[in-house]
Design brief:
The complex is a heterodimer of chains A (112) and B (112). Chain A has 112 residues and is an all-beta fold. Chain A contains no helices and eleven strands. The chains are: A mainly beta (112), B mainly beta (112).
Chain lengths: 112, 112
């Protein structure tokens, strides 16, 4: 069964450094999402992406965040200058039109 | 503020029993409803989707939706220890490919 893949599985970074989280959505999906889950808290929406542009973003997704689809398969989330509070699990999800979203295994981001 | 509410649990049921998980949502115009299972440290895994009032069955799982009461539930029949996980209720607030709003999840423990 096709799946969403994310790399790396765990990223440890010093505060203030830039990180790039990578995702390969399911191949025939057109809608892409990033969510995060701080330990012990609910899954929170960050941004959605369709047709090579952001379709929606939450209040969390401030100027420190950006997304890109650099080629036909990858979908990336960049955090420019990480803060301690960015430590969380980051999940990529994708969906076909009007279908449920399927999640990748996530990247655990630890900011020191 | 659009909210999805779940009892955090833990909900403990004996093996073979029916587990009943409940979710309420605040926005009356919500369109699509999903149950995800999340094992500790893992990503959300889609269990069920439901879009119209009534029941939807898939194997040991039944989702129930009552839009008038803004209530969605998940029944797990013949509960197994492997069903022990956190069950996340998620809602699309609008029609189409829109972000999910998640509840905090209900932790289910199936006792052998």
């Amino acid at each position: 069964e096709p799946e969403v893949t994310q790399t790396p599985s765990h990223q440890v970074t010093q505060m203030g450094q830039e990180v790039i989280l990578r995702c390969v959505p399911i191949s025939n999906h057109l809608y892409f999402y990033w969510y995060r889950q701080i330990l012990g808290q609910k899954v929170e929406f960050l941004v959605s992406f369709y047709n090579n542009e952001i379709s929606e973003k939450s209040e969390i997704f401030d100027d420190q965040f950006s997304v890109e689809r650099p080629d036909g398969s990858n979908f990336t989330l960049k955090i420019r200058s990480t803060k301690l509070e960015d430590s969380a699990m980051y999940f990529c999800a994708s969906s076909a039109g009007n279908q449920p979203q399927h999640f990748g295994d996530g990247t655990r981001l630890s900011i020191l | 503020q659009k909210e999805v509410e779940q009892n955090s649990g833990p909900l403990s049921v004996p093996e073979g029993a029916i587990a009943s998980l409940n979710c309420t949502y605040s926005d009356r115009v919500s369109q699509s409803f999903f149950w995800y299972r999340q094992y500790s440290g893992k990503s959300p895994e889609l269990i069920m989707s439901i879009y119209s009032n009534g029941d939807k069955e898939d194997g040991r799982f039944t989702a129930q939706l009552n839009k008038a009461s803004q209530y969605v539930s998940l029944l797990i029949r013949d509960s197994q220890p492997s069903d022990s996980a956190t069950y996340l209720c998620a809602v699309n607030l609008r029609e189409g490919n829109t972000p999910l709003v998640f509840g905090k999840g209900t932790r289910l423990s199936v006792i052998a």
